Amino acid sequence: MEIVYVDMDNVLVDFPWGVEQLSEELKKEYEGDLDEIPNFFSDLPPIDGAIEGFRALSNHYDTYILSTAPWGNPTAWIDKVKWVQRHLPEVGYKRLILSHNKHLNKGDYLIDDRTANGAEDFEGEHIQYGKAPFHDWDAVLNYLLG
């Protein structure tokens, strides 16, 4: 069975929505490092279609969540686990991998919005979410599921 890795931030989780909810004081205090805000990741909503999309992929692929977590924000690590437990309890169970070196994971596809943290060196196909032709989950599912 082919392996698919799905990034969290901006692919499963609506990071920009969370930024919009921050107070101006927090934005100023953590300017340039918004992901360092303690507990920031705990209540972020899913991207439209992400939960259904991940479940659909899980029916056809060996699917994992592959994300980074800020080194200077230890709450982000547990917040990401809790997010998966809340939003993908069955299909995400023990399928969360946190790594700053995504290229070390072997698989067929990586769905990620960026090329950072080793995504650019991933040996399988990098599907860059949010960029043409993969603007949304419908486009990703059409490509991977036909």
UniProtKB/TrEMBL annotation:
<dbReference type="InterPro" id="IPR023214">
    <property type="entry name" value="HAD_sf"/>
</dbReference>
<dbReference type="Pfam" id="PF06941">
    <property type="entry name" value="NT5C"/>
</dbReference>
<protein>
    <submittedName>
        <fullName>Uncharacterized protein</fullName>
    </submittedName>
</protein>
<dbReference type="GO" id="GO:0008253">
    <property type="term" value="F:5'-nucleotidase activity"/>
</dbReference>
<comment type="similarity">
    <text>Belongs to the 5'(3')-deoxyribonucleotidase family.</text>
</comment>
<dbReference type="GO" id="GO:0009223">
    <property type="term" value="P:pyrimidine deoxyribonucleotide catabolic process"/>
</dbReference>
<dbReference type="InterPro" id="IPR036412">
    <property type="entry name" value="HAD-like_sf"/>
</dbReference>
<dbReference type="InterPro" id="IPR010708">
    <property type="entry name" value="5'(3')-deoxyribonucleotidase"/>
</dbReference>
